[in-house]
Amino acid sequence: MTDPLSLTFSALADPTRRAILARLAQGQASVGELAAPYDMSLAAVSKHIKVLENAGLISREKDAQYRYCKLQAGPLQDLDGWVGAYRELWRDNLDQLDVYLADMQRGDDTNKQ
Amino acid sequence: MTDPLSLTFSALADPTRRAILARLAQGQASVGELAAPYDMSLAAVSKHIKVLENAGLISREKDAQYRYCKLQAGPLQDLDGWVGAYRELWRDNLDQLDVYLADMQRGDDTNKQ
DNA sequence: CAAGTTATTAACTTAATGGTTGAATAGCAT
DNA sequence: ATGCTATTCAACCATTAAGTTAATAACTTG
């Protein structure tokens, strides 16, 4: 699970981390500011932030004893690209075509991999 | 981590499971067919499939001793909606605005929460 | 310098994840 | 009925993850 996309998905698979991202979408914030809303130790939030940073979803800028976190869109763009490949699945009732292809597949094995 | 979105992200945070989804995007397949490409026990793939099913990303239809898996778009649509909320971040160089807002915030505290 | 603030690190606990092997279940075919 | 095929379940192991508290580091200010 070392690939970037897995890292991104994994980082986002936690409501606290997604909430932190949402907060950062409206501007940078220090670790303490980010931690304030949560009933959780500062160390725990610090860990969450590190997970986000390791996934490239945020960057940090040091200013005195504060570390200001800033959202980085790159991984989200990649994620958008990934889900984009599936977007056609729910457009134009492609479900019907899906079933058709599946039947073909079972019948003649052409698409087997 | 019981909310649906976390479940979806978590299920997708594994390359094998994403590959299984990609395979299913071109039509339904049995567990054995899905397992074939992987150097992994069938039981392991079976577990992966169960994770995808629990996340609602696939459904299963029983036919004789085969379980045919089929991709379900719902959770992917939700995910698309989630990432969509961030799409503006990388359009129109909104980064500049981001920095501006951040400076405002540190200066006058107006946006603190 | 001493004291307070901010954040990270270390050590630990508990629970979840991803894999294994082997047995069990269910359906099909001889 | 017997055996083959397909799939799951159970028990187990190793690793990772999420949280805790306590200690440490880095900086500011009186």
From TrEMBL, chains A, B:
Residue ranges of domain HTH arsR-type in the record: 1-91
GO molecular function, one term: DNA-binding transcription factor activity
UniProt cross-references to Gene3D superfamilies, sorted A to Z: Winged helix-like DNA-binding domain superfamily/Winged helix DNA-binding domain
Protein name: Helix-turn-helix transcriptional regulator
Protein species of origin: Aminobacter anthyllidis
Origin: domain of life: Bacteria
Signal peptide: none
Pfam families, alphabetized: HTH_20
